[in-house]
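Q: Got a minute? One more chain.
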Amino acid sequence: MLREAAVPAKKYMTWVAAAFVAFYVIQQPDGAAQSVENAANGLASAAGSLATFVNAIG
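A: Always. Here it is, folded:
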């Protein structure tokens, strides 16, 4: 019975998160762009570190 209640709650939380992201992008597009750029830079740095590690092993 608890599982049945968890599914709608998860669905609502997803919609709330999407609404928050949309509101943030509309209200502060420069801040949203900076956040995306920071995330992309972090992923690129992680990928570079992983490549360095793999090259060091081989």
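A: The CA atoms of residues 21 and 27 lie 10 Å apart.
Q: Perfect, thanks.
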